[in-house]
Design goal:
The complex is a heterotrimer. By secondary structure, chain A is mainly alpha-helical. Chain A has a single domain (8-319), classed as Orthogonal Bundle (ABC transporter involved in vitamin B12 uptake, BtuC), CATH 1.10.3470. Chain A has helices at 8-28, 32-55, 65-81, 87-102, 113-133, 135-138, 160-181, 185-195, 197-202, 207-233, 243-256, 261-277, 285-297, 303-315; strands spanning 151-152, 155-156. In chain A, strands 1-2 form a two-stranded antiparallel ribbon. In chain A, helix 3 (65-81) packs antiparallel against helix 4. Chain B is mainly alpha-helical. Chain B is 77% helix and 3% strand. Chain B is built from 12 helices and 4 strands. Chain B has helices at residues 3-34, 41-58, 63-91, 96-118, 143-165, 167-177, 179-184, 189-214, 223-236, 241-261, 267-281, 286-293; strands spanning 123-124, 134-136, 139-141, 216-217. In chain B, the strands form 2 sheets. In chain B, strands 1-4 form a two-stranded antiparallel ribbon. A two-stranded antiparallel sheet of chain B has the order 2-3. In chain B, strand 2 and strand 3 (139-141) form a beta hairpin. In chain B, helix 1 (3-34) runs antiparallel to helix 10 and helix 6 (167-177) packs across helix 8 (189-214). The longest helix of chain B has 32 residues, at 3-34. Chain B is globular, with a radius of gyration of 19 Å. Chain C is of the alpha/beta class. In chain C, 41% of the residues lie in helices and 22% in strands. Chain C has helices at 43-51, 73-78, 96-103, 112-117, 120-140, 155-167, 185-200, 212-218, 236-241, 243-249, 255-262; strands spanning 5-14, 17-27, 32-36, 58-63, 66-67, 81-83, 173-177, 204-208, 221-226, 229-234. The radius of gyration of chain C is 19 Å and the shape is globular. The chains are: A mainly alpha, B mainly alpha, C alpha/beta. Chains A and B meet through helix 5, helix 11 and helix 13 of A and helix 1, helix 3, helix 4, helix 7 and helix 8 of B.
Chain lengths: 343, 294, 263
């Protein structure tokens, strides 16, 4: 499943070309601003990949990912500023603490569909209020200032480019990790849960345990992204982690295409970069952004990833390999329960 | 807490709760009929408030007329969105999740359009009620709050009567229960879905005018109350009309009392923690509790 | 000889309805037990109770002399109880091979870290699962479909895939819920042969089926349920001659002819 219709040789060539472009980009575009904003998109791409694991591969709707992003960011920022710990330790702790915090969500993993979505949204709101009100810890609405640049042993990644390349490496690592995870025993169990819980149970898989593990893995990855965010922005404010950010991460996954790792990355870039590109439109910027978001949703469930794959297939004059019949669709107005809201 | 303070808080909580109930009913109607979590519901609320205040500036009408204006325009806006956008997406047979995300896009679009049309500054609502407080025993209550409760309940009762006693209302109920069967019985789903959005728009418009009269009208006024109302609808049990009404009022009361007895900064957290606890006990909200008892 | 599976006054109520009412049953090692009864007799609920997808309201269940009452489905599956579903519960978006590999979950150990690091142990485990799954597909005759998505299979093949997923981990007890539903006579005959082949590998079975020819051909003993209660139990010959069984089926169109044909 979720195996691309694309021959894997082409896929690997495409991946390597894309990676090469990203490596060259900060040298080709030395403008600080461009590197800065692409870097931000990469950081959100890591968070979007994590949500893809939940939504696209386990069928769990989480509207609470900003909480883990924030926990990672504040952990890393506080450890490096107040406690002057080295970045490496702060980075690792950020992931672990976010994963630890996600354990509080274990009881709610038995909720389904929209109910799970609302509960995670509630979690996101609670965590934001903690960031906002616990001034002794987070600096409250003043935020945290002077967060140092990341460092790896003797190297301090002070320049935008160095920071950028480090974030790119983390993104690639997250992609490879998830790419290996999906066809494994663990990944199959998650996909089984999404497709049929009863059959999964009857095959000897503890559904609650695996759902919880999916949440923890996603939270750890999001926590890493949060740490990168803190050291990229050098400044944290509770408003970076409102529930709106949780919705934004969801938008990234949906725009890119639910069930596609590459899609999550594409979606993160679209959602982060599009408003920047629309700046020329001035006050109409967000109106057009909203309209474009609606238009993207007309592309179907495979999102931009599906669209670009189809375009590439056409260009390369390839025929689809798989013989998956298109699923039967009822009358457009008749409601079919979506997988993630199935009771 | 003294007795009079309790009454004042209770009336305040009830008033804000009625507004949440109206918005929550809108969510519930749409989710029952189409499965869509309508993120732009808060913007319909905002439009209702804006149309109400605009109507007042054009013609200094009594409050009831403003409320009706807000309801009518809220309803029309919602129908236009449904027929113009969501229906187009459904005809393209995109998955439900895409339509839900599209409603987030609609929310962004409407909010920023609202900012373009009415500006970024909050617009004060005209003083429409007697400023002398009513006395309930030792407590003194602002007339405005009482009117919000009365009008809010009036709208909700009308909705119930509409659903129970009109042809259209019953067709909507049938379509929500089983779209396929309703279709076989000759119910035009396109029209019924448009009505459903229309009614939830009317409810949202009413909530907008009432909310505006309590505070002010602003382009961003809708989103947060709508999110809370959605939580309230979930609290009551998504898809249950009674649950949405009860959940909204409960949420308003909890929020008001939590702000006083716990802390203002964490008042939103109390509602959320309660929500999570209730969902843990009854994974389908309070309506699940009632179903269990039956 | 003690039974492999023993149900002792197992009961399940749903609200006011008693779907399974104080059913006791002993399934011996190696037998193929038929479970029949009119619609709504509680056959599927009984399978759900045995497989743990539904918890019993009261009563006891013993597997290999261990009390397993109320254990969740995944634990019972680990203990070797596997099943198929009447209304096909395949992982439609996964390939045929991946569907079967999920049945082998309990035979593996590797988790998140092993998969991310692609350790040698993890890769050996995957290879083993791959090989065993292909063997199970060979048994049911679907090996040439291994790479196709499950949703692309023909109906009869989907039933076989359910069986492959259930037998791949070499269960001690296999529950088949109407495996012949929707199959043509030739396919049903092949199914009986498959059931016998699986049984020959010392897999005990409980078979719920409406096709009387399948039941009569495959089962060594038959339990008849009616209105959630056990009506009769015995060899196919005894059941055919049982007055109360014939009565229970009388007046229920369709079943009458089928049971009488064997009487």
């Amino acid at each position: 499943m979720f195996k691309s219709e694309f021959p894997s040789a082409y896929l690997w060539i495409a991946r390597i070309v894309v990676l090469a472009i990203f490596i060259v980009l900060p040298f080709a575009y030395p403008q600080k601003y461009v590197v800065h904003i692409v870097n931000l998109a990469m950081i959100f791409a890591i968070a979007a990949l994590a949500l893809q694991l939940l939504l696209g591969f386990t069928g769990l709707l989480s509207i609470g990912q900003a909480a883990f992003l924030g926990i990672g960011a504040y952990t890393s920022a506080i450890l490096t500023t107040t406690y002057k710990l080295p970045f490496e330790i702060a980075f690792i702790t950020a992931g672990l603490l976010a994963g630890f915090a996600s354990l509080t969500l274990v009881p709610i993993t038995r909720l389904r569909g929209v109910y799970l979505g609302v509960a995670t949204l509630g979690f996101s709101i609670i965590v934001h209020l903690v960031f906002l009100n616990e001034e002794w810890l987070t600096g409250g609405s003043f935020g945290l200032l002077n967060i140092p640049s990341p460092s790896l042993g003797p190297w301090i990644l002070k320049s935008e480019t160095a920071n950028y390349l480090f974030c790119l490496a983390v993104l690639v690592a997250a992609f490879i990790a998830l790419h290996r995870l999906l066809p494994s025993r663990f990944g199959r169990a998650l996909q089984a849960i999404m497709l049929d819980e009863d059959a999964t149970r009857a095959s000897g898989i503890n559904v609650t345990y695996y759902k919880s593990q999916a949440f923890v893995v996603a939270a750890v990855i999001t926590g890493f992204a949060g740490s990168l965010f803190a050291h990229h922005a050098h400044y944290l404010n509770p408003n970076d982690f409102t529930f709106w950010k949780s919705i934004e991460v969801l938008l990234m996954v949906a725009v890119g295409g639910i069930g596609s790792l590459a899609g999550a990355i594409v979606g993160a870039f679209v959602i982060t970069l599009l408003p920047e590109y629309l700046r020329v439109l001035d006050e109409y910027r967000m109106v057009i952004f909203g309209a474009m978001l609606i238009a993207f949703m007309g592309l179907g469930h495979r999102g931009l990833a599906g669209l670009s794959a189809a375009v590439a297939m056409r260009l390369l004059r390839l025929r689809p390999q798989s013989d998956i019949p298109s699923s039967p669709t009822p009358h457009a107005d008749a409601v079919a329960a979506p997988r993630w809201s199935r009771q | 807490m003294s007795g009079s303070q309790f009454i004042e808080l209770f009336v305040g909580g009830l008033a804000i709760g009625c507004i949440y109930s109206l918005i929550a009913l809108g969510f519930t109607m749409i989710i029952r009929a189409t499965g869509v979590l309508h993120f732009a519901q808060g913007e319909v609320v905002m439009l209702g408030a804006m149309f109400g205040v605009t109507a007042h500036h054009l013609l200094p009408l009594p409050f009831i007329a403003l409320l009706v204006a807000g309801m009518v325009f809220g309803g029309l806006a919602a129908v236009a969105i449904e027929l113009g956008v969501y229906r187009t997406l459904r005809l393209r047979r995109v998955p439900l999740m895409n339509i839900i995300i599209a409603t987030v896009g609609m929310s962004i679009l409407l909010q920023n359009t609202g900012q373009l049309v009415w500006g970024s500054e909050p617009i004060a609502y005209p003083k429409l009620f007697a400023t002398n407080a009513y006395s309930i025993g030792p407590a003194r209550v602002a007339p405005q709050l009482v009117w919000i409760i009365v009008l809010g309940i009036l709208v909700m009762v009308s909705l119930q009567l509409f659903l129970a006693f009109t042809r259209t209302g019953r067709a909507m109920q049938a379509a929500a229960q089983s779209p396929e069967t309703a279709q076989l019985m000759g119910i035009n789903l396109t029209r019924i879905t448009a009505y459903t959005y229309g009614i939830s728009g009317v409810l949202g418009g009413a909530a907008g005018v009432l909310l505006g009269s309590l505070f002010y009208a602003s382009f961003s006024m809708g989103f947060l109350p709508a999110m809370k109302a959605f939580v309230a609808a979930t609290l009551g049990g998504l898809g249950s009309i009674g649950g949405a009404m009860a959940g909204g009022i409960l949420f308003g009361l909890i929020e008001t009392f939590a702000a006083i007895s716990i802390s203002t900064s964490y008042k939103d957290a109390v509602g959320m923690i309660l929500l999570i606890l209730i969902l843990l006990a009854w994974p389908e909200g309070l309506a699940g509790l009632i179903r269990q008892r039956r | 000889m003690t039974a492999l599976l023993a149900l002792d006054r197992l009961t399940r109520r749903f609200g006011g309805v008693t779907a399974v009412n104080s059913v006791s049953m002993n399934v011996q090692r190696g037998e193929i037990r038929g479970l029949i009864g009119p619609n709504g007799a509680g056959k599927t609920t009984t399978l759900n109770l045995i497989s743990g997808l539904t918890a019993p309201t009261s009563g006891r269940m013993t597997l290999l002399e261990q009390d397993v009452t109320g254990e969740p489905a995944h634990r019972l599956a680990e203990r070797g109880i596997r099943r198929t579903f009447q209304n096909l519960k395949l992982f439609t978006e996964l390939t045929v091979l991946q569907n079967v590999m999920i049945g082998l979950h309990t035979n593996g150990k590797s988790g998140v870290f092993e998969a991310i690091l692609a350790t040698g142990k993890q890769r050996r485990e995957e290879k083993m699962m791959h090989r065993d799954s292909l063997a199970a597909l060979e048994t049911v005759g679907l090996v040439d479909q291994a790479g196709r998505p499950a949703s692309a299979l023909a109906y009869g093949h989907r039933r076989l895939l359910e069986i492959a997923r259930a037998i791949v981990a070499r269960p001690t007890l296999l529950l088949l819920d109407e495996p012949a539903a929707g199959l043509n006579p030739a396919e049903a005959e092949a199914l009986v042969a498959l059931i016998r082949r699986i049984n020959a590998q010392r897999v005990t079975m409980v078979l719920v089926e409406h096709h009387m020819d399948v039941i009569m051909a495959a089962c060594s003993r038959i339990t008849v349920l009616n209105y959630g209660q056990k009506l009769a139990e015995g060899t196919p010959a005894e059941i055919r001659a049982n007055e109360s069984v014939i009565e229970a089926y009388l007046g229920r169109a369709g079943f009458e002819e089928r049971i009488v044909a064997y009487a």
